[in-house]
Amino acid sequence: MLPPAALADFTTALSAERVFTDAVTLALYSHDETPRSCLPDAVLFPASHEHVVALMRVALAHHIALVARGAGSGNVGGALPAPGSVVVSFECMNAILEFNPADRYMVVQPGVVTADIELAARAHGLFYPPDPGSSPYCQIGGNLAMNAAGPRAVKYGVTRDYVLGLRAVAGTGAELRTGCRTTKGVTGYDLTRLLVGSEGTLGLITEATLKLLPAPEARATLRVCYATNLDACAAVARVMNQAVVPCALEFMDQRSLLAIQAAGAATGLPDGTEALLMVEADGAASDLPRQIGALKTALQGNGMLELLEADNPADVARLWQARRSLSHAVKRIAPLKINEDVVVPVSRLAELVGYIDRLAERFALPIVSFGHAGNGNLHVNIMVNPADSQQMKNARQALRELFSQVLELGGTLSGEHGIGSEKRDYVSMEINAASLEMMRLIKAKFDPQGLLNPGKLLPL
Asked: Which residue spans traverse the membrane (predicted)?
């Protein structure tokens, strides 16, 4: 339990109605989307930057670990409490502090829901490109922590590419201001890009200045069915080797299609469909036909069974609803979904997909693959029953072999989910000892007591 003196100091720093230690609240904040859980000693709900400064000082005085939390929608245990830690939930810091359409930026607190940023920007003819699948409920603070992405990353990039500056509190208690409000600026080291993706291990972000873009006038979506995974992967390679860059290029294998069909979506596919691509283009309305024509040409080839186009908003929304429902639909296959988000060069995607099929057969495990094919980023879901010890043993071995193959193909262990606690033990497979030591030195400078999100990101 939290020492009485620490509890009293947190209460003084924030007020009693912002400090919770009851069993129900602790249970609610004991887990994220991973199957693990750990009860925190307390949950704090700061409402301002000044609150975060004050609670950091209390944590330093009593040597209390702090775990920052947004909506808890992460897949790698990034917001999972550590034993003896206190959760800092930013859901009450949910204000858009400033919106400057003329200079195309917005200043937000970490608890703002990602979709609300997009909604506010669209009202002024602008948009915020990063679009994680959880955007209707995830919060920008979690996106910043994990450098989240989404389907539009193939054309527009990831969260880090749209952060101009940050306000944060380091693990020393120091108040940081990084970056600027202009789209160009090279003064000093780039602490903004260092903090984004650091998973709350270096500082607690209290404000973010986000870059916005003019909203595209129009968009159109193609749904393309193929006879095999390799046919679909070949089409991906063709698309990414011509001049028109799609704003989204998504892949779904046969198990993915069966899962969403069981949920009532993606019905009416041609017989023999084993893979599906969703391809979207956006831009000026006058230019969209040219883009779609070029994409259609690239998508045609061996194994293509059907190509459908949607350009009105209702039809486009229906197609994307099926894709966005996929992650939850897959959970019906087995009690536990081990959800990975590996990335390989697009030219090696077919090799990865073929390897995954062989891995599933060899270990007798359902493995569902889908994701952002235009970036070479696949969500590889190993479906298991945690009560079956042999299945769990097979899954762990399959996971290690998957990571080895991804690295052999020139890829990386995570494209958007982050490392958290779930992938921490595999990081040394990708990052060499000298680089890891430099990262540990950076961590020690920002957080000398090791209080910020302990047990995450860096291997022991």
From this structure: none
